Amino acid sequence: MPELKLGLSKLGNRNLDTVPPSAIREFDNEISLIPGMIKLTLGEPDFAVPDHVKQATKVAIDQNFSHYAPSFGFMELRELISQYLADKFDTHYVATQEVVVTVGATEGIYAAISGLFNPGDTIIVPTPTFPLYETVAKVNGIHVINVNTAPDFVLTAAKLTEVLAEHPEATGLVLNYPNNPTGATYTHAQLHELADVIKQTDLVVLSDEIYAELSYREPHLSMGKLLPEQTVLISGFSKSHAMTGYRIGYLAGPHALIALIGKMHQFLVTTAASPMMKAAEEALKNGQDDAQQMRDVYRERQGLILHDLQQAGFTAPTPAGAFYIFAKIPPTLIQDDVKFAYDLAKKAKVGVTPGSVFGPGGEGHVRLSYAASTQNLQEAGRRIQKYVAAFRINDEK
């Protein structure tokens, strides 16, 4: 094994020193070594990719879609995305100029943040939320203002006004709804109130709406409809069609912003994979009902695990979207959410994600993904209840 030349030991992007590796992945990797573990840690749908999408992928390979595609994605896919967004959410984008296909929403997030903002800029990130936004910002030397939204887990217009008064230098705002990790989303009234505040500013809104198809109450209302001139919409096929491994996402927004993001996208990955884009075309052509079928199952699973958690003494709001429950640890149990999650994994063989990894407001909570199978959720519920009962007995001794 080669040893690094001593003179190279000081190399490295110093901004990487300010961010740890993915806490979600590291925790998941560690508990995965425990035999018999039921993992409710990752946002990974247990559904298989729909058969018609699989078949389209095979056909694309057989038809030799194995070469470079246009950097912004196949035009047919971009047109289908544009039509889908118009039909589903009444948002309107010109496929040729305002849509770019990315390697998953993750690459889209990186391309958007690094393409739109400069080192020293400031963006606002409501928390608890997916940690990637802050990580990408810090790697690029961008300041992040975290806004703790607990206990309701929504950014109110009043809170945003307050933060903007304290940080008038802010140039960007990240919204993620339905939210990972809380499952919270915004009512239409709340979104209109937020939009009224934002339109008085020059903020760019990065609106991550990848869970839009998994809204359980009101139909999803996109910020791209309310503020199209200030919003970059981020989405993809991982959650709506269980296509996590296909790595196809997309961004849509004003041409001037998409041009900048698209340039960064070119330098990062050149283009998304051709067969996978053909699969995404099939998902939009003939898979409009795929997400609805999954959503119905998720709602059933949500009820199962939420009931078992409440029986065990956890408190959690009923999620309005996505497939996560963000539960507050009962006061009788270990209150450090990281220590609690490790203890639960070791003693009950149930994996949940510590809430503190999602930022301020997450402390003392754990995230459970009910994208797992019904059988695993039922067993996990039994194990959690047994763990809590044993903890109480030991505590009384």
TrEMBL record:
It comes from the Bacteria. Keywords: Aminotransferase, Pyridoxal phosphate, Transferase. Residues 36-384 form the Aminotransferase class I/classII large domain. It is an enzyme of class 2 (transferase). Its EC number is 2.6.1.-. InterPro entries: Aminotransferase_I/II_large, AspAT/PAT-like, NHTrfase_class1_PyrdxlP-BS, PyrdxlP-dep_Trfase, PyrdxlP-dep_Trfase_major. Its cofactor is pyridoxal 5'-phosphate. One of its GO terms (molecular function) is transaminase activity. Belongs to the class-I pyridoxal-phosphate-dependent aminotransferase family. This is Aminotransferase. The lineage of its organism: Bacteria, Bacillati, Bacillota, Bacilli, Lactobacillales.
